[in-house]
Structure to design on (650 residues):
């Protein structure tokens, strides 16, 4: 009997490792002679021997057993005399196979009783061993899974912007919280060479490492394309072409891509099947709609482009579906109307993000596990007492037109009467021309800086050149009679017009810079600019 | 606000030489405006400047008009303007150009005005 223990232990280990496999039981073959190296007999799941052993009440006499069983034939061929089923909680978990006695006598009924006794004690012990091994295997699998999640998280975090650009007159905020099983959300804020800024929010279908890898690829081609191509629709078209050939089956990327001109609030955008952003304006909340298929589905796609102008005080929320598709304990969805409502009632920026998260958490209930990644990017154009625009233009003939246009866009949300807006435009054009010509000698390397500021009733436009403390006063006050009579040059109307077109025109100079400040009172009672 | 270089064409209407100004009245329009004026002045008729297709006039443009007006006065040719937006009409008043040329609302008014001043 002692000879049995060693191979039994060995099989115990082997059996435990195989546990968890659906069917099939290995029977430990224990030959009488020292032939421990023999491989165990495999019992196929459909072998009748399995059912027989499962139903047996004790040690089975293999030599006397008649069954159409390949395993039984194998056992007999190996010289097995007795098979002792090891049963734990009604389940056959192993078989102890016994070869002939050394004395070559048959096993007595006492021997068989002893074996039955042994089996009754060995089976639970074997089961415990199996369970311990199962637990260990599960823990290993779980650890592998956690490691994978960690890798996905690392990829994801590595490809999200480390910091957001600082745009005067704008508040930009972003939020990203991955689900435990990391999804494929991403966002990006890309400063472009001409002062414009691209905004991206996207979502890769699927989760974990595959989604994170596709996300990182998408983000990289987006960044590269954003710098070379101007139009948002063309950027998405290009990214789609680049992604299509290598996109894994059943995966695709939704993505909203917009380009903001901070000086004017002009936002041009295109959408590859992503959730529509919300814009909060003085008139209410609107969606930014533009048609387009998700990226990576099929090549040759075109993406519609749309434009909007964000007035001072307007804010935009770009978001991923992790918000609207979150569930409450009754499986109700958070939904778009709820999100729209939140946007309508709160200012943009970080405040809006905090509000959405608070609403979401009270909806899903305390301690609910986040189902999907949650991503938000908000941009808000400063309103009262803020800087509405800040830009520079090279000193080149005709650039005053650009200045007029940028200033007009910057003040678009202030409700300036058309007559007063026209006057301001003329004053800005004249002041810019004056700065480019007299302050900067029309040298393209000398820029004119223009800032538009709004505080209370005062709208100020500061136009700065490099003319130092040079006096702005013209040589002579324009006198039309003298001009018509040829006693004065026909020119010299610029400063005269500026003074007539705005409520105040002030000149200041410091550090080699000269600033002409134009002031317009928004509620100007005085109708004539003069 | 795209830049449109000034194009000036001259036509005769009711005994008046109408200069149709299409585009921006600024420094870029100097040659076109002078050519148009010269062509009209040759005809010896009163001149009407049509600003209805002009969206931008700056101080240099004002100077060009002052220059035309000076030339016309030297020759005794009357100049009328029409089609100005309210904003540029205000500028013509502030600069007192309106004191030296009749400002009419439209072409019809401009021709009437030119007619009356001819008979005056």
């Amino acid at each position: 009997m002692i000879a049995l223990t060693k191979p039994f232990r060995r099989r115990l280990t082997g059996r435990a490792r195989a546990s968890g496999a659906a069917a099939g039981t290995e029977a430990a073959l224990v030959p009488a002679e020292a032939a421990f190296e023999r491989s165990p007999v495999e019992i196929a799941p459909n072998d009748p021997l399995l059912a027989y052993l499962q139903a047996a009440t004790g040690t089975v006499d293999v030599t006397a057993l008649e069954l159409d069983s390949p395993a039984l034939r194998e056992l007999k061929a190996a010289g097995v005399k007795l098979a002792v089923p090891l049963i734990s909680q009604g389940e056959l978990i192993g078989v102890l196979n016994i070869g002939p006695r050394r004395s070559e006598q048959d096993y007595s009924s006492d021997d068989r009783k002893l074996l039955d006794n042994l089996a009754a004690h060995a089976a639970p012990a074997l089961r415990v061993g199996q369970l311990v091994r199962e637990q260990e295997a599960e823990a290993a699998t779980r650890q592998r899974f956690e490691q994978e999640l960690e890798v996905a998280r690392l990829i994801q975090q590595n490809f999200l912007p480390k910091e957001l650009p600082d745009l005067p007159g704008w508040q930009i905020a972003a939020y990203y919280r991955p689900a435990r099983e990391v999804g494929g959300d991403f966002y990006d804020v890309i400063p472009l060479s001409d002062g414009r800024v691209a905004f991206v929010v996207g979502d890769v279908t699927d989760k974990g490492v595959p989604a994170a890898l596709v996300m990182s690829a998408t983000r990289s081609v987006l960044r590269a394309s954003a710098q070379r191509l101007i139009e948002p629709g063309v950027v998405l078209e290009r990214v789609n072409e680049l992604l299509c050939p290598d996109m894994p089956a059943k995966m695709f990327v939704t993505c909203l891509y917009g380009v903001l001109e901070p000086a004017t609030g002009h936002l041009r955008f295109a959408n590859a099947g992503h959730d529509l952003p919300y814009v909060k304006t003085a008139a209410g909340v609107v969606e930014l709609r533009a048609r387009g298929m998700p990226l990576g589905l099929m090549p040759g796609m075109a993406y519609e482009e749309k434009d909007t102008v964000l007035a001072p005080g307007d804010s935009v929320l770009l978001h991923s579906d992790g918000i609207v598709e979150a569930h409450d304990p009754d499986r109700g969805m958070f939904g778009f109307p709820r999100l729209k409502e939140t946007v309508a009632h709160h200012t943009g920026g970080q405040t809006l993000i905090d509000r959405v998260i608070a609403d979401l958490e009270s909806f899903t209930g305390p301690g609910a596990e986040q189902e999907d990644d949650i991503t938000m990017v908000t941009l808000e154009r400063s309103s009262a007492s803020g800087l509405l625009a800040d830009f520079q233009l090279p000193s080149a003939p005709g650039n005053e037109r650009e200045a007029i246009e940028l200033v007009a866009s910057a003040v678009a949300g202030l409700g300036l009467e058309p007559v007063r807006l026209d006057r301001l435009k003329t004053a800005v054009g004249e002041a810019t021309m004056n700065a480019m010509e007299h302050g900067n000698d029309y040298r393209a390397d000398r820029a004119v800086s223009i800032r538009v500021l709004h505080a209370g009733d005062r709208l100020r436009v500061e136009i700065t050149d490099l003319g130092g403390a040079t006096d702005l006063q013209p040589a002579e006050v324009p006198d039309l009679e003298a001009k018509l009579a040829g006693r004065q040059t026909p020119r010299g109307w610029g400063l005269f017009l500026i003074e007539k077109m705005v409520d105040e025109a002030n000149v200041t100079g410091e550090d080699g810079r000269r600033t002409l400040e134009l002031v317009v009172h928004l509620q100007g009672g005085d109708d004539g600019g003069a | 606000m795209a830049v449109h270089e000034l194009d000036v064409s001259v036509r005769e209407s009711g005994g008046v030489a109408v200069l149709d100004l299409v585009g921006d009245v600024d420094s870029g329009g100097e040659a076109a405006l002078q050519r148009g004026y010269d062509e009209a002045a040759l005809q010896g008729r009163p001149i009407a400047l049509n600003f209805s297709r002009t969206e931008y006039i700056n101080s240099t443009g004002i100077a060009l008009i002052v220059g035309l007006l000076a030339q016309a006065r030297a020759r005794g040719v009357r100049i009328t303007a029409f089609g100005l937006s309210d904003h540029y009409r205000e500028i013509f008043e502030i600069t007192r150009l309106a004191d030296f040329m009749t400002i009419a609302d439209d072409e019809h008014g401009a021709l009437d005005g030119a007619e009356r001043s001819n008979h005056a």
